[in-house]
Amino acid sequence: MSEHYFTNNENLKSELRLIDYDYNDYKFKFYSDNGVFSKNKIDYGSRLLVETFLKDNISFDNFLDVGCGYGYIGITVSKIKQVSGDLIDINNRALHLAKRNIELNKVSCNAFYSDSYENINKTYDLIITNPPIRVGKEILLNILIGAKKHLKTNGYMYFVIHKDQGAKTILKTMKEYYECDVIEKNKGFYIFKAKNIDIAK
Fold it and tell me: Which residues contact residue 65 at a Cβ distance below 8 angstroms, ignoring those fewer than 6 apart?
């Protein structure tokens, strides 16, 4: 069986590589390696999520990147918006890379291990995530619905789901918990914006 990017295989051979990413006048470099999500290039869904979010131009003082991988989403958001954030993952190699990339890109972020929100003990203005779809629907919904406990009132969650991975069903479910809309569609990827308000049951 092949290894998934959300598992830890300490025996997997390391083949470090460097990925470039530019956004307007900002230039980034990211170390990547075998055993992490989208190891050879910035994933299109993640890129669409970040660039759609940046155009939305909301105000926030802190954020959480769930399932950060080598740190593209959180580091890019932190540097461009000049806001500190926390980056979490369950893949130790990804976290090691994320920590290196935080230093490389000179941003104010912390990267640490957390299985979903297990090690999260505060609330955020913003949660942003390209959730690991292949872990299954139960864990996916735990990430998306569980975010509500870690978002401040009127805080936002931005996330990306491909239409072939149940985006329309996810939207219906999310509307039970958040004020939620799809704010961008491109190449089958749906970008969601969910506001943490009290939903009358």
Answer: 71, 73, 74, 77, 85, 86, 87, 88, 127, 128, 129
Domain assignment present for residue 106? The answer is yes
pLDDT tens digits, one per residue of 58-71:
999 999 999 999 99
Which domain range does residue 24 map to?
18-195
Torsion sign, CA atoms 170, 39, 88, 111 = negative
pLDDT in tens, 24-33: 999 999 999 9
Find where tokens 């569609």 sit. Answer: 185
Q: Is the pTM of this model over 0.90?
A: yes
Total count of domains within the chain: 1
pLDDT greater at residue 159 or residue 198: 159
**For the domain that residue 171 is a member of, what is the CATH number?**
3.40.50.150
Q: Look at residues 199, 141, 153, 151 and name the one whose alpha carbon lies nearest to residue 175.
A: 199
Provide the greatest CA pair distance for the chain. 51
